[in-house]
Amino acid sequence: MTIFALLQANALIQIMAFFCVWAILWLPFAIITALALNWNPKKPLSSNQKLSLLASLYLIAPLLIWGCAKLQNLSFSDYGLTFNLSILYSLFIGLIIGILGLIILFGVQLALAFIKWQTDANEKLPSLPSLAITTLLIGLWVSFSEELIFRGFLLTQLQKDYSFWMSAIISSIIFAILHLIWEVRETVPQLLGLWIMGMVLVLARISDRGNLGIPIGLHAAWIWGIATLDTAQLITYTGKAPEWVTGLNKKPLAGVIGILLLLSTAAILIKNNPHYP
């Protein structure tokens, strides 16, 4: 298929071509990284291995999206990414909403004794600020990349052939399914939660008048908070609530409480901006 024919193709075909080209461009970097890390395909990826692979994957994506935009006479602003002070303000708002939601999520679980502080949690507090800064930077980088891809590029491309909400549904399904690449066993129970998360982030883009500031901030806050707690091992689950409530495999998106957090966030976004497509 020529480039001209591809530009005239259905949006889903264009998206499939995008992911194929992305995978082909990333493959050499992935092989080199895997060899350097002595990765054993029979064992699950460690956090460091996953982060190293993500580094090369997400460095390629913005360049590929820029190339797609040029071919279609578009710019990053058409995908919701503007480079001005307003996006920083929106990003901050998203961070605040996300952090407050996590405080409520884990605060309720602490109050109900579903989780408890680790016995050595106080000893880990002095090292927490440096860890929190590191996970914040990682959260911002991952959320920037994923929001540009899924709530920016994919959502915009799909709207050429589908209604807004159908585009939101499809892009969120793709967002959820692609997480299976990293951890199939742990991701399957989270698929519904990941799809809902994708839809909530679409609502966040609408609330930001089509920009990606609030989605990036929200997404970063969720990554930041959960990654910090997991890495520092500050909490442990007591077993007083079933896993389907707190989250299978200790993953909030695989439990009722995590999904309630997402739905509550969606309600806040809708209340503050009721004018949706």
Would you write up a description of this structure?
The chain is an all-alpha fold. The chain folds into two domains: about 1-75, no CATH class; about 85-270, no CATH class. Helix content is about 70%, strand content about 0%. The protein has twelve helices and two strands. It has helices at about 5, 10-35, 45-70, 85-110, 120-125, 130-160, 165-180, 185, 190-205, 215-230, 245, 255-270, and strands at about 115, 235. Strands 1-2 form a two-stranded antiparallel ribbon. Helix 4 (about 85-110) packs across helix 12. The radius of gyration is 19 Å and the shape is globular. The mean pLDDT is about 85.
How would you sum up this structure in a few lines?
This protein is mostly helical and 277 residues long. It contains twelve helices and two strands.
Report, as a whole number of angstroms, the end-to-end distance: 34 Å
Report the uncertain regions.
none
Give the integer mean of the pLDDT values. 87
Number of domains as seen in the coordinates: 2
The amount of beta strand, in percent, is: under 5%
Gyration radius, in Å: 19 Å
> Helices and strands: which structural class?
mainly alpha
Helix percent band:
over 70%
Number of strands: 2
How many DSSP helices?
Answer: 12
Strand order of the largest sheet: 1-2
How would a crystallographer describe the biggest sheet?
A: 2 strands, antiparallel
Order of helices and strands: HHHHEHHHHHHEHH
What form results from the Cα inertia axes? globular
